[in-house]
Fold this protein.
Amino acid sequence: MTKTANAKSYTPAIVVMFALFFMIAFVTNLAGSMGVIVTNQFGASKALSQLGSLANFIAYACMGIPAGIILKRKGYKFTSLLAVVIGFVGVGIQFLSGYVESFAVYVAGAFVAGFSMCMLNIVVNPMLNTLGGGGNKGNQLIQWGGSCNSIGGTIAPVFVGWLVGGSIADASVAKAAPVMIIAMAIFALAFVIIMLTNIPEPHMETPAEKAARLAGKAVKDPYGPLSFRHFVLGAIAIFFYVGIEVSIPNTANVYFSGLDWVGPALTGTIIGGYWFSMLIGRLVGASIGAKVSSKLMLLATSAAAVVFVICAILIPESTAIKFRESQVPLSLIFLMLCGLCTSVMWGSIFNLAAEGLGKYTAPASGIFMTLVCGGGIIPFIQNTLADVPSIGSMRSYWLIVACLCYLIFYAVAGSKNVNKDIPVE
C-alpha cells in the first residue's frame, strides 16, 4: 500500500477523532454554562453552581488510569464506543434533572459525562498522534483537533445563553433542554460512525499477551510510562497547563466583573475573546504544525504568555483603552491575548511527552488524563491567594507565571528522551 493510499484510508478515522474533539469541549463547557441555571432552579450558591464543572474534573482523576488500561486491552474503537455511550447517559441524566427537580441528579449526570470526556481524551490524542505518524505531523493533527475542540467550547455557552434568554429568573434546565438533546443526538450519530469506521489499533495488546494475562502467566513488564523521564515531566506539564488555561479567564472574570467601571457584561465579552483567541491560535498552530517543532512551539508560546501575564500584573488597573462607549482595562486585554498562547500548548506537550513511548502510549495517555485535574486545582489555589488582602487577584497571577516557567523548562530540557534504551515494541 502506498503512503497516499494509506493516508486516504485513515481519513474517516481522522474525521471521527475531530468530531470527538468537538464533543469533549461542547459537553465540558455545557457543565460550566449551566451554572446560572442551577443557581436559579435549585437555589445553589455560586460555589455549588460550579459543582458540575468540578465533577467533570474529578471524573478525570478517577477514570484516567482505568481508561488507559481499557484502551490497552480493548483498543481505540471499543474505548471510543464505550465513551460515547457513557456520554449519552451522562447528558441524559443532566437532561432529566430539570424534570425531577434534583440538583444531586444534575451533578451526578455531570460526573458521568466527565467519565466520557476523560475516555474520549484518552482516545483522540494518541490516535491523532499515531495517524499523523508522530513528530510534527502528529502534532499538526492534534492542533487541528484542538481547533474543533475550540469550536465546541465556544458554541456551548453561547447556545445555552441564547436559550435561557435575557432573564436569569426564568433560567431552568428545561429551557436548556435543546442543547442537551443535540448533544445526545451527536453522541448517537458518533456511535454509528465509529462502529462503521476502520480504526487502526497499533498499541492494543496482542493475542499472546491477552492469553498470558488471562492465564495468570503474563510476564511483568519492568518498565512503564513512568520509566521515561520526559513523560513524567510532561505529565506534570499537563497538570500545570490545564490549570493555566482555566485559571487565567476564570480569575479575571471574577475580579473584573466586580469592578463598577467594568462590570460583568464587558468582562464576559472580553473573556469570550480569550476562548476565541484559542481558536485562532489552534488554527494557526495546525497550519504550521508540520513545519515547526513541538519544542519550539511550546517554548515560544510559554515565553509570550509570561510576557502577557507580567504586563497584566504590572499595568495599573485604571489604565484602559476606549472601546465604543466603554473603558476596557489594558491588563484584561493582555490576559485575553494569553488565549493565543494556551491554544497550542496541549498538543505540543502531549506530542513531546508521548514521543518514543511505543507500546506504553495507551497507559501513558491514561496518566495524562488523570492529571487534567489541574484544571480544578490550580484555579482553586490561585483564588485562595486572591482572597488574601495583601496579595489580591492580580498579584495572584504570579502563580500562573511560575507555572508557565515550568513549561519553558520542559520545552528547553525536560522533554528530551533520556531513556531510549528501554524497549518499546
Observations:
- Residues 76 and 123 are 6 Å apart (CA to CA).
- The longest strand covers residues 320-323.
- The chain has 17 helices and two strands.
- Residues 51-100 form the longest helix (50 residues).
